[in-house]
Design the sequence.
């Protein structure tokens, strides 16, 4: 597709991942949050976003990251779809971490942010960890091809994805183009082997180039959802109750509403 001038389309992907587990006591719940904070610190999230940026063919211009007290982390990347003139290797200065320091002397619309939100239910002992990733690009680069990598980078029980293309660009004849790639469903960009383990729902508004997909894991192995608890130490009734509470929590998150609770 030959375009006239710069590709002005803005492609925005909002990607939420939920990990659900059972943490029995208050101590277990606090240890779970500490475990999540250590596993998904701003340093590790930064490494994930560097890989993601490389996958979409973008270039990192600036990074901001923060670990919060008592819990949570966030990282923001400013990116461009082409290497900026002042990013020549000979001009790079090294900071204390060995990463290039760059001076931003231009305007750019592309960025990636990630935030984490660990929390737990005080009555059912169900703990939930959410990762919220927003990718916004302009130009030819698109975040759609990173979905399998993102899903595999986290323990993903429920996933909600929103993709929207805004604005327009023009072809060489001056004709407006409101979409520069084929798009019917976000699921088309997820590996079939991944889709096989999830239930999936689409809500798309094709006239507005808005696409929404939800995934929820099909099969639950209770041993994968117990934090500091051995399944063999639980009675059959306890195992059944915990599994029921886990499924209810997932269904409500997947549905986006309170189904079982008032």
Sequence:
């Amino acid at each position: 597709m030959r375009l006239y001038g710069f590709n002005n389309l803005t492609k925005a992907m909002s990607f939420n991942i939920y990990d659900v587990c059972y943490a029995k006591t208050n101590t277990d719940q606090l240890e779970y949050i500490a475990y999540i904070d250590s596993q998904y610190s701003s340093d590790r999230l930064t490494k994930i976003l560097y890989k993601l940026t490389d996958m979409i063919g973008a270039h990192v211009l600036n990074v901001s990251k923060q670990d919060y007290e008592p819990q949570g982390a966030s990282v923001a990347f400013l990116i461009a779809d082409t290497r900026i003139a002042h990013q020549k290797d000979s001009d790079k200065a090294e900071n204390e971490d060995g990463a290039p320091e760059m001076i931003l002397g231009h305007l750019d619309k592309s960025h990636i942010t990630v935030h984490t939100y660990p929390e737990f239910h005080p009555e059912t002992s169900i703990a939930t960890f959410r990762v919220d990733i927003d990718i916004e690009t302009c130009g030819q680069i698109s975040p759609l091809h990173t979905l399998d990598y993102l899903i595999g980078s986290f323990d993903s029980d429920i996933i909600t994805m929103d993709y929207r293309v805004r604005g327009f660009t023009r072809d060489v004849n001056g004709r407006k183009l409101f979409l520069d790639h084929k798009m019917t469903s976000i699921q088309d960009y997820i590996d079939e082997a991944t889709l096989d383990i999830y239930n999936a729902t689409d809500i798309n508004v094709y006239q507005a180039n808005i696409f929404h997909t939800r995934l929820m894991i099909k099969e639950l192995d209770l041993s994968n959802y117990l934090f500091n608890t051995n399944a063999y130490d639980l009675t059959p009734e306890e195992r059944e109750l915990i599994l029921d509470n886990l499924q209810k929590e997932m269904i409500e998150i997947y549905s986006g509403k309170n189904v079982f609770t008032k």
Residues 84-108 have pLDDT under 50 and may be disordered. Residues 10-255 form a domain with the S-adenosylmethionine decarboxylase fold (CATH 3.60.90.10). The CA atoms of residues 199 and 216 lie 5 Å apart.
